[in-house]
């Protein structure tokens, strides 16, 4: 199985947000989308499940064209974990996770025991089963993020999109979420595409990275190919110190200073 | 299980409400006689009792029940859709539009229908025109953002309210009947009105109930709903159209009865929770029960005259709601 994003363009009113973006992701891979604010990361993610309609380009899952499917069919293929999920209503955690079955249910169908089993299983994987009867509005940020991931898994998608899944989480929960996402890719063969601002985490947990700048791909490849001092300096306009950390076997990045002598323009 | 228990209980409550309110009124007709009249037992009572129960009280009770259901369901749907606790069936200016239509018919005699139904027909037509204008104004590129809808509803509503004031100003002898219509009530109930309201309200309520799950998910935000495979624009449009339809039907046969559509959904949310699959049907039943009882009070409390039912709905409902609110410390979800 393969996700192919082909020449996708999108603009808001007159501002070009994505300009001819193309990449592929394979089964079991975690692809990270990185780039400065306003570079089009979230727009790209939202184009993949057609929450936004791309103006040009195609998005294919194997031979299936996402742009030709209806919303329900897309939701069966692609689960999404949006940037922030503020839920003010006292639904139970189980209710929330069961909402993931929506694309599989007819308007008149209630959830069957099979749906319940799928939801419980997703909660087991994300370690949220013990929260099932708790009310969602009393739950902490890290747990809530895992619950939303459980909801996305309950859709039984082949592709999982996550928009800054570690935002607002403490360092413990950051690692926990990314370990979980990696497991989903490795063990379940789900295609994962995630947006991140954290170069260290992205470099460590993603198999490949797409570095966006002003709506187009600046660099793409394995983390060590993309996260070079030059690329970071060109795109983020910042000096970084890169060093190899033996215990996690990846490069780590420490921002040093905003570049003075050149601009990324 | 829990759901069907609540619904069954409320249905039994509604039946008891209907039967007992038929037995209450100036003419003293025993409960058992009401029962016998309704189910065609061999006659052992004066003819006029049959007339009172079947032609005077029954249409009035049914109409109050229908209007209560319609307002509670429409209010609940609007609150869910707008994610706003202040939303009511009247939020998009439907009541003002209907009031203008009714005032035209009452004051100037301009109407499409004639006789008995001229006022309700004009109210209904103007309610539908209002919602059409509000939606068209808010629409940009085929989408109608909720905030824009809300503002356009308020503005169009304000415009029609001003026209109603103008009508009041020039009403002359008709002022009294206009004011009575605006306060709302069931004193002019008839089987004709039941026949208009019944199919519209049943259809609208049924359609909205079909969208319970979608409304739940829309509470998470439109982005989440899209990600879960919901076509949010068409859900919004369908729910708005049918909520407006039942509101228009309710207002046209009973005038502008406040409070029911705003508070019954809140009360039920405090009791059964935010899940529209139980919230909508229980609001529907409780709306009917509540309005039947308050109307029964309205027509008996000051015999031989009657009080506008809106005064009673708010005077009884508001303290009860505040009591629940204090007990739970907050409006659930807001």
Strand content of chain A: 25-35%
CATH class of chain A: Alpha Beta
CATH superfamily of chain A: P-loop containing nucleotide triphosphate hydrolases
The first-to-last residue Cα distance of chain A is: 38 Å
Rg value of chain B: 20 Å
What is the structure about, briefly put?
Chain A is of the alpha/beta class.
Structural features, described:
Chain A has 265 residues and is α/β, with parallel strands linked by helices. Chain A has one domain (2-258): Rossmann fold (3-Layer(aba) Sandwich). Helices cover 32% and strands 30% of the residues of chain A. In chain A, the strands form 3 sheets. In chain A, strands 6-7-8-3-9-10 form a 6-stranded mixed sheet, with helices on both faces. In chain A, helix 4 packs across helix 5. Chain A is globular. In chain A, 41% of the residues are buried. Chain B has 334 residues and is mainly alpha-helical. Chain B has one domain (2-328): ABC transporter involved in vitamin B12 uptake, BtuC. Chain B contains 14 helices and no strands. Chain B has helices at residues 2-23, 31-38, 47-82, 94-108, 118-138, 146-169, 175-183, 191-210, 212-218, 222-227, 232-254, 260-272, 276-300, 309-328. The longest helix of chain B is centred in the first third of the chain and has 36 residues, at 47-82. The model of chain B has no long low-confidence stretch (mean pLDDT 91). Classes of the chains: A alpha/beta (265), B mainly alpha (334). At the A-B interface, helix 2 of A face helix 9 and helix 10 of B.
């Amino acid at each position: 199985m393969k996700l192919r994003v082909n020449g996708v363009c999108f603009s808001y009113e007159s501002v070009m947000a994505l300009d001819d973006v193309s990449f592929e992701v394979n089964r079991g891979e975690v692809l990270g989308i990185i780039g400065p604010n306003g570079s089009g990361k979230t727009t790209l993610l939202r184009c993949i499940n057609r929450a936004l309609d791309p103006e040009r380009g195609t998005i294919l899952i194997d031979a299936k064209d996402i742009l030709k499917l209806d919303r329900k069919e897309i939701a069966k293929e692609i689960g999404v974990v949006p940037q922030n999920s503020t839920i003010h209503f006292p639904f139970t955690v189980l209710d929330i996770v069961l909402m993931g079955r929506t694309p599989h249910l007819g308007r008149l169908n209630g959830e069957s025991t099979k749906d319940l089993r799928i939801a419980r299983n997703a909660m087991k994987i994300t370690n949220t089963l013990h929260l099932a009867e708790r009310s969602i509005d009393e739950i902490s940020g890290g747990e809530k993020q895992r619950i939303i991931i459980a909801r996305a898994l309950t859709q039984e998608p082949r592709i999982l999109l996550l928009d800054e899944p570690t935002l607002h989480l403490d360092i413990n929960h950051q690692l926990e979420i990314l370990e979980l996402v990696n497991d989903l890719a490795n063990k379940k063969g789900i295609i994962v595409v995630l947006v991140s601002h954290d170069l260290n985490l992205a470099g460590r947990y993603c198999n490949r990275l797409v570095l966006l700048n002003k709506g187009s791909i600046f660099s793409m490849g394995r983390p060590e190919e993309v996260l070079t001092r030059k690329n970071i300096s060109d795109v983020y306009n910042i000096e970084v110190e890169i060093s190899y950390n033996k215990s996690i076997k990846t490069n780590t990045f420490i921002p040093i200073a905003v570049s003075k002598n050149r601009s990324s323009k | 299980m829990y759901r069907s228990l609540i619904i069954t209980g409320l249905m039994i409550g509604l039946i008891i409400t209907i039967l007992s309110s038929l037995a209450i009124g100036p003419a003293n007709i025993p409960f058992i006689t009401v029962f016998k009249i309704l189910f065609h037992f061999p006659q052992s009572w004066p003819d006029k009792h049959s007339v009172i129960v079947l032609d005077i009280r029954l249409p009035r009770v049914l109409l109050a029940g229908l209007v209560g259901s319609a307002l509670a369901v429409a209010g609940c749907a609007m609150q869910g859709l707008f994610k706003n606790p202040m939303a009511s069936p009247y939020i998009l200016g439907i009541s003002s539009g209907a009031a203008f239509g009714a005032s035209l018919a009452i004051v100037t005699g301009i109407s499409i229908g004639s006789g008995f139904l001229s006022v309700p027909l004009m109210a209904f037509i103007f309610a539908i025109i209002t919602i059409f204008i509000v939606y068209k104004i808010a629409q940009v590129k085929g989408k109608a953002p909720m905030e824009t809808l809300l503002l356009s509803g308020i503005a169009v509503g304000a415009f029609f309210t001003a026209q109603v004031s103008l009508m009041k100003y020039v009403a002359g002898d008709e002022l009294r009947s206009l004011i009575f219509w605006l306060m709302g009530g069931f004193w002019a109930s008839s089987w004709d009105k039941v026949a208009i309201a019944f199919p519209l309200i049943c259809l609208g309520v049924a359609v909205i109930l079909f969208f319970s799950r979608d409304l739940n998910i829309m509470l998470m935000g439109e982005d989440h709903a899209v990600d879960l495979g919901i076509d949010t624009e068409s859900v919004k449009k369908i729910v708005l159209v049918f909520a407006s339809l039942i509101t228009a039907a309710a207002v046209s046969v009973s005038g502008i009865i406040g409070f029911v559509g705003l508070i019954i959904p809140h009360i039920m949310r405090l009791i059964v929770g935010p899940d529209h699959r139980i919230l909508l049907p229980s609001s529907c039943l409780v709306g009917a029960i509540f309005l039947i009882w308050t109307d029964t009070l309205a027509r008996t409390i000051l015999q031989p005259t009657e009080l506008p039912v809106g005064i009673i709905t708010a005077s009884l409902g508001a303290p009860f709601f505040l009591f629940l609110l204090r007990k739970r410390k907050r409006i659930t979800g807001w």
